[in-house]
Amino acid sequence: MFLVSVGRGVILFLSSIGKLSCFLAESIVVGLMPRYHWKQIGQQAVQIGYFSLPVVGMTALFTGMAMTLQCYTGFSKITAESAIPSVVMIAMTRELGPVLTALMVAGRLGASMTAEIGTMKVTEQIDALTTLSVNSYKYLVFPRILAGTIFLPFLVLIDDIIGILGGYLVGVHYLHFNAANYIHNTISSMSTWDVTSGLIKGAVFGFIVCVMGCYHGYLSNRGAEGVGRATTNSVVSSSIMILLLDCILTFVLF
Questions:
Q1: How many domains is the chain built from?
Q2: Which range of residues forms the domain containing residue 81?
Q3: Is residue 7 part of a domain?
Q4: Which among 35, 48, 168, 194 counts the fewest CB atoms within 10 Å?
């Protein structure tokens, strides 16, 4: 029985990988063919970029503040307080900015994508699009993937700026660092690759979030229960893949 259950799990896993690969291949191949649905792409860009700004900004601000306080607690024991601006900057641009932005977007937007597409499938709206000779992959999936891949790096950049600003506010106004020295240490320790690597991660994470959101929406069935389960699976799978790929990309980029 043990071998049977293991074999069944392996087969289900490989089957899921195959379905996801076919879904992704068809979405990209069909989506790259003219004509493009620019209105849909613009709407998704606004949803992903503009409407995600409040939650991403608050997350970055509080993270930068908390990190500065924690760094001060540890670094003050070895009289290395001057390294705090550099540590906060590197942590935000390389890791925390891309990862936290992607996780917040996955929770907010990935779930929304899954619920929207899942509801359309359950209510047979996707079948209606096919009847009207509209390719659902090109109309529903590709604009979301393209918008997520392009605009999540912009969110990451804003996240980096706000996170570093949060560290500055705590460092200068609460821990009484010299403002000029704090800014100088932050800028002098910053390199172009620190920011660029975070933007690369942001593009990869945006791609993953949108693919998983659309894929699980297409898999949903059995009414409201199926849509709810698909939404949960979308957020969980996106989060796991974000953390896994973050580790892999860190090894590759650094």
A1: 1
A2: 38-253
A3: no
A4: 35
Angle between helices 192-219 and 142-173 (to 10 degrees): 130
Any domain includes 101: yes
Q: Which residue has the tokens 């998983």?
A: 212
Cα-flanking dihedrals φ and ψ of residue 147, to 5°? -65, -40
Tokens encoding 137: 């992959």
Please report, as a single letter, which amino acid is at residue 94: R
CA distance 45 to 39: 10
| Sequence-ordered list of residues with C-beta below 8 angstroms from that of 59, at least 6 positions apart, any chain | 100, 101, 104, 159
CB distance 107 to 235 below 8 Å:
yes
Place of tokens 């969110």: 155
Nearest of 211, 244, 16, 200 to residue 110 by alpha carbon? 211
pLDDT in tens, 164-205: 999 999 988 888 888 888 888 888 888 889 899 999 999 999
pLDDT of 59-69, one tens digit each?
999 999 999 99
Name the E strands within the chain. none
Secondary structure element (H or E) that encloses residue 79, with its range:
none
pLDDT tens string 127-172: 788 788 788 888 888 889 999 999 999 999 999 999 999 999 998 8
Please list, residue by residue across 88-123, b when 16 or more beta carbons sit within 10 angstroms of its beta carbon and e when fewer do: bbbbbbbebbbbbbbbbbbbbbbbbbbbbbbbbbbe
What does DSSP assign to residue 92? I
Is the whole model's pTM more than 0.85, yes or no?
yes
Determine, yes or no, domain membership for 11.
Answer: no
Answer whether residue 108 is part of any domain: yes
